[in-house]
Amino acid sequence: MPSSAGNNVSGIPKADRMTIFSRIIKGEIPCYKIAENDRYFAFLDIRPVRPGHTLVIPKVEVDYLFDLEASTFSGLLAFAQPIAKAIDQATGCMRTGLVVEGLEVPHAHIHLIPIHAPGQHAALGTHTEQSPEQMSTMAAQIRSYL
Description:
- The protein has one domain: 2-Layer Sandwich (HIT family, subunit A).
- The chain has three helices and seven strands.
- The chain is α+β, with helices and mostly antiparallel strands and 146 residues long.
- The N and C termini lie far apart (53 Å).
- 28% of the residues lie in helices and 20% in strands.
- The chain has helices at residues 20-25, 70-91, 132-144; strands spanning 8-9, 12-13, 33-36, 40-44, 54-58, 95-99, 110-115.
- It has a five-stranded antiparallel sheet with strand order 3-4-5-7-6.
């Protein structure tokens, strides 16, 4: 019997499935966009650990970060670098931490999370409530430093 792994999940052909991140890239789901080019996309996490928490993703839909082509992987980090520096400036944090977990959405991504004090972790699992106005303002502040 031929394997259907990766081709059909719950009766939906792979070509008809899209991750929530791909739907955000296509504009089907709104987001607080930080930056975009032809290969990468960055937007605020809607459940931020801290204000300024940003997700950076490749536009190519690959589940596991370390399965990305080497040039896409290194390009993702290069795309994220000026965004992290903009987060530093916009939030006044000591530095921006980078977290890779990637279990909630099957689309490779990294989290950029502001760290404001020694010992403050950039761990996922907790979040702070932000109003749409706060999210919009934060996105604009980060973009202003790019």
